[in-house]
Amino acid sequence: MQLLVNIDHVATLRNARGEGYPDPVEAAKVCEEAGASGIVFHLRKDRRHIQTEDVYRLKETVKGDLDFEMAATDEMLKISKDVNPELVTLVPESREELTTEGGLDMETVFDDFHNRVFPAYTDTDIAISLFIDPNEKDIELAAELGTDAIELHTGTYANASNDADKQNELKRLHDGAKLAHKLGMKVNAGHGLNLDNLQPLVETVPHLNDISIGHALVSSALFDGLDETVKKFVLIMNNAN
Ligand code: PXP
Prior knowledge:
The protein has helices spanning 8-15, 24-33, 52-61, 74-83, 106-120, 136-145, 155-159, 163-182, 198-204, 215-224, 226-240; strands at 2-6, 38-42, 65-70, 87-90, 127-132, 149-153, 186-190, 208-213. With 241 residues, it is of the alpha/beta class. The protein has a single domain, classed as Aldolase class I (TIM Barrel), CATH 3.20.20.
């Protein structure tokens, strides 16, 4: 299990003033030095946080795994192939959303991914991960597509308003991870994770590989420092390993 830090919101803060700081690439360096195993960014169609040039700078400086999160548009396929990260994570994306709101509906995207998206990567070493909710149907369709990994959407778990809902979602994530592993896919997870809800997740859900954490980590870093905050997240994950 390893922490990949999503540095999108360092860019959000930078873009609020357009002064060039804080620099997400500098933040990525600090995260890796503090023990993160890699960096995630989401290059959105509207470029609301990460910019195209950030992506190329990250590719030059990140030493661990680089996870390029993106909608499967032709533009993003082209940029991601040019950048050549270790992993692309395909997500649904709509213009109005504040953040990614749920996993891919595999039935809807299946034919397009099969005919256009997956063939685009056959001549590369880039691994593909599909961001999906922990339900059997989506996981089985992801396996049928031949994806290397899935990223289980943990947002419903993170946002559960009572313990029963939280436990119910943990069980779905547990079962989803087991099924995905059985079907030969790597299991990643992310969305809405923080210093309180990470531990129950990593102690309950088996086979976890990359855990992608952004908003809560960058927010905690304002008070405790980026280096200290990354170490706290890594410690929780190491204790469960
Ligand atoms: N994984 C995916 C697919 C995401 O879209 C996001 C948000 O960009 C994250 C993980 C990280 O979520 P958060 O910022 O809530 O930690």
